[in-house]
Specification:
5-stranded antiparallel β-sheet, globular, 6-stranded antiparallel β-sheet
Length: 158
Amino acid sequence: MLAFECMRICQAIKPQAAAALSGDWVSLRNYKRCMIIVHIGQNNVATTAITVDKAKTAAGGSESAGITMNNWWSLADFTQDTDADLYTKGTAAASITSSATGADASIYVIDVAAQELGTDYDFLQVVLGASNAANYVQATYILYNAAYPQALLPTAVA
């Protein structure tokens, strides 16, 4: 089975200067899990708060802010030319505060099971709190464990 037959990769937040940013809403209706990858490039000593919201509609209807992120990992303060790839498992929380070294980069990986959203909640979005404009952020959704694997998976972008 090819990767694209069982997962969908979607842009959540395009690469840009750090500010208060909300990702696109994505639907987990046809997927069992969503991995959210947040990449933060630091040029300034400032943290970024990372949260995940859920909703019942594609427009964010009946939104519930700050779900508990039970499974997340970080690779903080690594430089591009090193072989650092050891992620640290985080403690379940409603918000993750990024590193604030002011140098290098950090990656945060959050894994959410569709069943964690609760009854009637099919949509989620990643939200990044305001940071410093000298820092850069981006986020990607990887929806996987498709309910109905096929050559052309259904869209997930709301």
